[in-house]
């Protein structure tokens, strides 16, 4: 007889692993499907200090290793596969991957979202080593250093102002001739004493071996190219990139309610389809952090458990 899981969790980042942990503790037959590396974006982070109880193990890989061990100890199974097609319409959900098909009574979607990259040389190598996509996560690391923020939208400018709490100077590099954020936000930025804005400018290369040491910028009006190196005493500076995030939800378009590509849920992680939940960065939410992803996963798993219990009770009532 073909196996039907109580819950299949798509995505093995913090939200998916947390869901697997709570599903396992709830004695559910749970399967986590991750297409690449367990842990998502956090495994590329060398130092994590804003996850509760991470003070002794501050690297992303160490935190995920402990979480995976904990998840598996409660009976959840983790497999590597890339889900390419889903049918969420029936009581039994069908998921088709590169390596096989999976059936489940409930599904938790935890595919996450990826920051939009500049796509310049040195960016990938120095991500987590001076290049960041999260001011809340990494701002404190740049206390009394210089920081450059790439972008001109609401998030970029708001995060730039947040970074002034830590950095001695913050410079926004805006590729347009004006900020594209709301006027009220732009007015605050223009009045900020520790914030400078350079227009018509973009980064073409990031330099450094084990840490950001400099960058090359280009003026889009004059085509002037300039190399900026870190202050000798500092040895580095921060580059925070805020040019948007890409939710990994293409698979569910036309099936689930979305806003700008993010899955809409209620506070209990319910989507518009019964028995289908979303957790973590792929859903509409105000804060995308490891700690909120973990909370989402826990809630989604508990709600899936309650859903299965209600279905079982209904079946007993109908049978009697």
- What is the SS-derived class? alpha/beta
In total, the number of strands is 19
Distance between the termini: 26 Å
What proportion strand?
25-35%
Radius of gyration over C-alpha positions, nearest whole angstrom? 22 Å
Describe the protein.
The chain is an alpha/beta fold and 320 residues long. The protein folds into 2 domains: 4-115 and 245-319, FAD/NAD(P)-binding domain (3-Layer(bba) Sandwich), CATH 3.50.50.60; 131-241, 3-Layer(bba) Sandwich (FAD/NAD(P)-binding domain). Helices cover 25% and strands 27% of the residues. The strands form 5 sheets. Strands 1, 2, 3, 4, 5, 6 and 19 form a 7-stranded mixed sheet that branches. The protein has a 5-stranded parallel sheet with strand order 8-15-9-10-11. The chain has a 3-stranded antiparallel sheet with strand order 12-13-14, with no helix packed on it. Helix 5 links the parallel strand 10 and strand 11 (195-198). The longest helix is centred in the last third of the chain and has 30 residues, at 290-319. The two termini are 26 Å apart. The mean pLDDT is 91. Keywords: Disulfide bond, FAD, Flavoprotein, Oxidoreductase, Redox-active center. This is FAD-binding protein. GO terms for molecular function: oxidoreductase activity, acting on a sulfur group of donors, NAD(P) as acceptor.
Tag the structure with descriptive keywords:
single chain, 320 residues, alpha/beta, FAD/NAD(P)-binding domain, 2 domains, 5-stranded parallel β-sheet, 6 helices, 19 strands, 25% helix, elongated
